[in-house]
Structure formats: C-alpha cells, structure tokens
Amino acid sequence: MNKEPSAVDSDNESITRKVYAERVKVFTDRAVGGAYSSILGTVLLAWMQAPIAGLNHSIAWFCCINVAEVLIIVWGHQYRLAKPSEQEAPAWARRQILGAPLLGLAWGSSVWFFWVDGQMLFYIVNLTVLVTVTALTLTIVAPFASATVLFTAGILLPILAHLVVFNNPLSIQIAAGLVILFLVQVRYAAIARQQLLSALDTAQRNAYLAEKLRLSEHRMLIAQQVSGTGSWAYDHSTGRILASAEYLRIFGLPAVARDLPVAQIEALIPEHERVHQSLLALVAGGDSHPLEFAVHPADGSAVRQVRSIGRLEKNEQDGRALVLGFVQDITKSKQLEEQVRNLAFYDSLTKLANRHLLNDRLDQRILANQRSACYGGLMFMDLDNFKPLNDTHGHATGDMLLVEVANRLVNCVRKGDTVARFGGDEFVVMLNELDHDPEIAHTQARVVAEKICSSLAEPYRLPIISKDEKDNVVEHRCTASIGVALFLDHGATPGEVLIWADTAMYKAKEAGGNTVRFYEPVPSLRTEEESPNIG
Q1: Prior bond to 521 cis, omega within 30?
Q2: What's the rounded Cα separation, in Å, for the pair 416 and 422?
Q3: CA dist., res. 1 & res. 468, Å (int)
Q4: Which residues make Cβ contacts (< 8 Å) with residue 86, sequence separation at least 6?
Q5: What span, in angstroms and rounded, lies between the C-alpha atoms of 76 and 95?
Q6: What residues have CB less than 8 Å from 57, skipping those under 6 apart?
Q7: What CA–CA distances, in Å, run from 165 to 159, 182, 504?
Q8: Residue 469: φ, ψ to 5°
Q9: Three-state DSSP class for 109?
Q10: pLDDT value of residue 533
Q11: At a CB cut-off of 8 Å and minimum separation 6, what does 195 contact?
C-alpha cells in the first residue's frame, strides 16, 4: 500500500529544494568572483613565466585558461539576470559544474607551457602555484562534490601526463605526492561542503519556519478579522494581558498586537468587577464558561457587545498561571437576535406586543395569580371610526392614526402592564396585579378603561400629502369600544379570557361605541349554574 506523503515530508522536500537552489547561488557567486581574481593571477603568472618559457607560450596559455574563466563569468551573469526558480536551479548547476573540469584542464595545461625539463626549481615553483590554485579553487567548487572531483581530475591529469612523457627521475615521487596532496585537499573540500550544507540547511529551515509562522499569523489575523474574534493571554503574576490586533480593535485601541495592563482593558468595561472576578476564578482553577458583557471602545465608537471565554494553562518552566482565551464581537448577532425577537413578538407598525407575546404574557399572568391571589384585567378594544379615514385619505394616514393610538394607550397604563395590537384596528391592554378584592379590582379596571376611552376620543391631527404635493393636516375623531374581563386563577385559558373581553367589547359596540362594558360576573366567582351576563 502506498503511503500518502505527510506534511513533514512535504516541508522537508521544500527545504531541500531551497537548500539546493541556495547552493547553486553560492557556487555561482563564488565562481564569478574567483574567475575575476583568477584572470588577474594569470596575467601575473604569464608575465613572470614569459622570460623563461617564451612570450608565445605565455600568451597561448593565458588565452587558453581565460576562455574557461570568461565562460564561467558569462554563465554567472546569465544566472543573475535570469533569477531562476527552485525548479530551474538544477539546470543552472549542471552548466556551472561543466566549467569545473574546463578550468582544471586549463590550469593543469600550464605544465606543458611553463615546465622546463630538468629544471627542478621550475618544477617546484609551478607545482606550488598549481597546489595553491587548487586549494583556492576547491573552496569555490565545494558546494558540489561533482565539481570538486571534476576540477581536481582536470588539473591533475595534464600534470601526470607531463611527468610520464618527460620521465623525470623524480616523476613517480612527484606524481605520488601530488595525488596524495590533492586527495587531502579534496577531503578538506568535502568537510567544507558539509559545513556549508549544514549552515544552508539551518538557515533555510529557520527562514522556512519563520515564513510559515508569518503566514500562519497572517491567516489567523484574517480569520480573526472575518470572525470578529481576538485572542488574549493573561499573566496573573504581572497583571498584564497579551492581546492580538483584532482583540485591541474590538476594544477601540490601536490594532497592533502587544501586551498592556489588564486594568487598561477593564476600564472600558462597565461591568468590569464581574469580568475581573470571573478572571480571578479562572486563575484559581475554576471552570471555563462564556462571559458576555458590554464594551465602551476607547476610540469613542458605538458600544459593543462581546463574548469572552478563557482557559487556565500552567507554564511548566516557572509554574506561572496563564489564562488563554478568545473574545468575539457579537454586536451584530445581538442586533440580529433583537430584530428577530421584535419580528416574532412585536407589531412592526406600532412596536406594541403582538398576539404571540400577548398570549405568552397572559398565560404567565394567569399562573402568577395562583401565587398573588390578585385579579388581572384584560381590555379588548376596537376603534369606532377608523374605516372612513382609510377610505378617504389612504392606508398611510390610517397607519399614522394607529401609531398615535398606540402611543396614547401606553401613556394611559402602568409600566408593568401590557399593550398589544391584536390586528387591524383592534388593541388589547392587560392590567397586572389588580386588587385581590373583586369590587376594588373592578373599580381599578374601570378607572383605567375610562381614562383610555377619554384619551382615544381626543381629536387626531394627522399630516397628509395632497396631490399638489403640499403638506396638509387632517383632523379626525376616532373613539373606541372597550370590553373588559377580570380574571383570577380558576382554570381559564388565555383564549377564554380573550373571548370574554371580546364579547364585552361587542356589547360596547352595540351600545353605540365610545363606551366601556365589563364581562360579568367576575369569572372566579361564577359557579357552574351561573350563566354569563354583560353589564
């Protein structure tokens, strides 16, 4: 079964390619620099050897060796101009490696031009020059073992051939010594290559890991920005918090990751004492749980709602307690939740409670009566003169009247009471915590109902836009028929209580409107034999 390559294998392969490309660069840079220096050296050597070997021999050798040097320089400059990729590096390495044996042969050929047979002094001088050149050149070609071997072979072959052809008495000893000396130099070149490769590998691994870390941090920064989530670490021993850029942006501070006193952050949190106690509980080893709180950003921007969660971590080296966590800006989600809640529980036009919320609160009130033994009151009302306004001036004007009715109703009741739009021009008011005595509760409800009836009967001044696009005000009178039902805990459902109030409202309509009628008797006092009356 073939094994899938792991992420580590992929990283190692990438680093290997980078190291190889860097070897080519080092080799090329050294080769070009060495070629320029070598040209100067060949000028000096040719000039020194000219009186002995002859001017023609010196010029011929000078031209021969500098052809190889020029090729190396040209290849090097082409490499710098091309700026090859990691994938192209091996092809450039082969071209440079090909120059190594050419250069070796060019230098080794000097024995055929400058060695004077029988002149031991000239042998020693020329060998010293060649050994020195070899030592210097091997440092240049060290990045590649093949270049080292090819250069050494290139320079050694012409020398050994010359010694064999001219058969000097010391040829064997000189050849053996040269081979040993060159092998030693190759060995030192191998050591230098290993040191270079180790240094390059370390440098590339560090650079690769640094780049991966940078990319990881960049991706995390983008992710935090997109999600509105910042990271933080709190050090209890120093009282400082290390915050990410997004964390600081949420708090209205310059978005540059850094550490700062935790007190500077808590100063932006109205409920800072609750937040700080939660942080201390975590440091003491408490359980982690989400914490929601408001933030007043330091830059003066709108208040934000955030959710934060942390986890205790112990530093194994010094035992310090660190709390690591995340904070998320949930302002938009909270606003969306509020919008959804409003759509679900409130009338979009009047902003009053809708049927769903009214039923829920009425159900809760009926249950609460079990504990308080106090009556509740429910008023069902219908506007008496609403349709003519709609027919004459349109629905937009009718909507304005409904909004005004809602405002008047809210002003007529206590803060704990509920005002709801039941639908169309029908409204419901639920009175909480009336008296436990039915007569007193009846009186309390009547006072509020008559107050509402009087308020709604006041004329309405509604702005309208006429066909000539001039603003006008229409005055409209619209009274209400109000039915009231008192309820206590005696098994009635919210639907039944609404039916009682609705029935009483229709009696108010039959009485000519702009009046109040109660559903009688009080439900909690009614026996099974009694039949309902309206009065």
Answers
A1: yes
A2: 19
A3: 86
A4: 17, 18, 20, 21
A5: 10
A6: 49, 50, 113, 114
A7: 10, 21, 136
A8: 60, 25
A9: coil
A10: 36
A11: none
Look-up of token digits 């509105």: 228
303 by Cβ neighbours in 10 Å (0-12 / 13-18 / 19+) ranks as exposed
Q: Yes or no: say if 113 and 53 are a contact pair by the CB < 8 Å rule.
A: yes
Measured distance CA(55)–CA(47) in Å, rounded:
8
Structure confidence at residue 6 (pLDDT): 55
pTM check: above 0.70: no
The DSSP line for 114-139 is: HPPTT-HHHHHHHHHHHHHHHHHHHH
Interstrand relation of 533-534 and 304-314 (parallel, antiparallel or unpaired): unpaired
pLDDT of residue 236: 83
Query: Could you please report the per-residue DSSP string of 342-361?
Result: HHHHB-TTT--B-HHHHHHH
The values of phi and psi at residue 263, to 5°, are -65, -30
Higher pLDDT, 123 or 322: 322
Amino acid, single-letter form, for residue 36: Y
Evaluate whether 256 touches 239 at the Cβ level (below 8 Å): no
Residues 6+ away with beta carbon under 8 Å from 125: none
* Average pLDDT over all residues of the chain: 80
The CA distance from 477 to 412, in Å, is 18
Other Cβ atoms less than 10 A from the Cβ of 158: the count is: 19
**Considering only CA atoms, which of 80, 69, 78 is closest in space to residue 31?**
69
> Measured between alpha carbons, how far is 249 from 74 in angstroms, rounded to an integer?
54
Cα gap 356→345, rounded to integer Å? 6
Summarize pLDDT for 441-479 with one digit per residue, the tens: 999 999 999 999 999 999 999 887 666 555 688 889 999
Task: Identify the helix (H) or strand (E) that includes residue 434.
Answer: none
What percentage of the chain's residues is helix, strand, coil (to nearest 5)?
Answer: 60, 15, 25
